[in-house]
Design goal:
This protein has 119 residues and is mainly alpha-helical. The protein contains six helices and two strands, in the order H-H-H-H-E-E-H-H.
Amino acid sequence: MASSTGVSIAQIAILQRLRADGPTTAAALALAEHVSQQAIAQNLSALKRAGMVEATPDAQDGRKSLLSVTDAGHRLFATARATRNAWLERAIESTIAPEELPALDKAIELMERLANADR
């Protein structure tokens, strides 16, 4: 996904988190993504330069900025998701036998539970 969009996997994860959770601070984003504030800052800098993320003053605390996805970021994310889904569909059709599909469904269910463990 990252190679077709010019955006790293970490940056796609940031866009996904912001899309799912809404505007947040860089510190909260770092905590949610389990990465350092420095790593978040580097990725956010690139996303801001590309016009994918914007920062606005926090109405509750003027010292903080809230980060949110721009229209361009939403479009990029949708394109990246469509590309990934098309690849995944082709890979499943060419690799997984029909009788293996229930096992794949179960594996997906387990992976989704793991992915949501910290939410």
